[in-house]
Amino acid sequence: MGVLITGVTAGSPAARRGIRAGDELLRMNGHEIEDVLDYRFYMNEAALTLTLSRDGKKRILRLHKRAEEEPGLEFATYLMDSQHACRNNCIFCFIDQLPPGMRKSLYFKDDDSRLSFLFGNYITLTNLSEHEIERIIAMHISPINVSVHTTNPDLRCRMMHNRFAGDCLDILRRFAAAGIKMECQLVLCPGINDGEELARTMEDLAALIPAVESVAAVPVGLTRHREGLPALRMYTKEEAAAVVRQMEAFGDRMLAAHGNRVFYPADEFYLQAGLPVPEDETYYGEFSQLENGVGMTALLKSQFQEAMEECRDIPKGSQLTFATGVAAFPLMTELIGQAKARWPEIRADVQAVRNEFFGETITVAGLVTGGDLIRQLRGKTGEYLVIPEVMLRHEGDVFLDDVSREDVERELGVKLIVSPVDGDALLDALLL
Fold first, then answer.
1. What was the pLDDT predicted at 82?
2. Domain covering 95-293: architecture
């Protein structure tokens, strides 16, 4: 078993040794190469012994290069094989709540440990074979991002509709014993895995510190497309506040014991509870849970205020409209108000876009669609429309509903500016 080489970079160490497309890479320094993890782990050595197959005949080549230099081999896909699909049927799965008719790639559920290490994707551990567990430990692949949700084995099986889901805690313990660092995520559903179950989960994960570096809890997200799915509901204001108090109290314990809070409710919990989001940057440690919306408010405020203090430019006075989700609207209004107080030349307003596509219970900016922008902002924008880059797919060309950037510009008669989600970029946009 090997991996087919589809190309060789011109002038690379591999090209100089006569390797070519169509060759099959079998081993590197005696280790079987199955996929991108094997390849990238073993390729960093300066002296490589490659076992290749060409036309059914094996041959061994010795290749010398600088340490960390790429050998120059190209493969059909980045992972070098197919992406691993999720085997769960979680009661809260967001992909199950997508409307029909979207592009096919959006319906794919990945649960791939390689993507966890390489790109920060979260995995459930239910998709790992014993061989993959041992490989992660042997290669010391770290950190791993894990969707835990609960450490109660029976409850985890029920929530994920997978009879193997209860093995999670045993795998976490094996990783911890091997020194594998882990960032953990809990999707909390009211009345199911919060309250006493959340207390149990936090105690179990706390026992794995320092291997467990941080744990984020996010409230379940429910769209209006839940026909035939389990009955779930959103958190009430009082219930969200209870989660915040419970996790803050536990975080206080961890701070006293370990010098780090470790456990964090997402900013969204504070917003649902009507509570102020902590703004002290030291509260969030290394900000390792930004992808789960933990500390985004504090970081954006800090970055923006620092950028304003250092800025010596004068705004050009362009007419700007900033579009965001309902959840971020108060924060964006506050920050832009601060900039206007310093620079009266700024002409900017903020528009909160309701999520009619997924349902108005979805309030984050990253799930705002192009169609909703067009329907709600027609006749309400300035010369420029500024949106956060999270509204677009990774390639930066289309929204979730396949509306393109050009569609929005044409329909609204504006120039679209796509801005990174950070304080410096926000100020840069305001100075246009």
1. 77
2. Alpha-Beta Horseshoe (3.80)
Q: Which neighbouring-strand residues pair with 63?
A: 48
Q: What pLDDT, on a 0 to 100 scale, did the predictor assign at position 117?
A: 66
The distance from CA 281 to its chain's CA centroid, rounded to whole angstroms, is 21
User: Length of the chain in residues, anyone?
Assistant: 432
Residue 147 dihedral angles phi and psi, to the nearest 5°: -85, 105
Query: What is residue 288's three-state secondary structure?
Result: coil
pLDDT tier at 248, thresholds 50, 70, 90: very high
Please give the pLDDT value at position 114.
74
Amino acid at 106: L
Return d(Cα 184, Cα 147) in angstroms, integer: 6
Domain 3-75 and domain 300-430, same fold? Reply is: no
> Averaged over 380-403, what is the pLDDT?
93
**What whole-number distance in Å separates Cα of residue 254 and Cα of residue 257?**
5
Contacts of 122 (CB under 8 A, 6+ apart): 116, 145, 146, 147, 185
Q: What is the pLDDT of residue 77?
A: 82
Of 130, 142, 219, 197, the residue nearest 167 (C-alpha): 130
The DSSP-derived string for 196-261 is HHHHHHHHHHHTTTTTEEEEEEEEPP--S--TTS----PPPHHHHHHHHHHHHHHHHHHHHHHSS-
Partnered with residue 185 across adjacent β-strands are: 147, 216
CA atoms within 13 A on the CB side of 346: 22
Predicted TM-score (pTM) of the model is 0.88
Contact 223, 362 (CB under 8 A): yes
Region 224-234: mean pLDDT is: 95
Strands 182-188 and 144-147: what pairing?
parallel
- For helices 130-139 and 168-177, angle between their N-to-C axes, nearest 10 degrees: 20
The arithmetic mean of pLDDT across residues 315-344, rounded, is 96
**From the candidate CATH numbers 3.40.1560, 3.30.50, 3.40.50, 3.30.70, the one assigned to the domain spanning 300-430:** 3.40.50
Q: Which CATH number fits domain 3-75: 3.40.50.1000, 1.10.10.10, 2.30.42.10, 3.40.50.300?
A: 2.30.42.10
Mean pLDDT for 24-47 is 87
What secondary structure letter does DSSP report for 414? Answer: S
Tell how far CA 376 is from the center of its chain.
Answer: 28
Residue ranges per domain, the chain? 3-75, 95-293, 300-430
**Which residues 6+ apart lie within 8 Å of 334 measured at CB?**
none
Instruction: Give the pLDDT band (50/70/90) at residue 361.
Output: very high
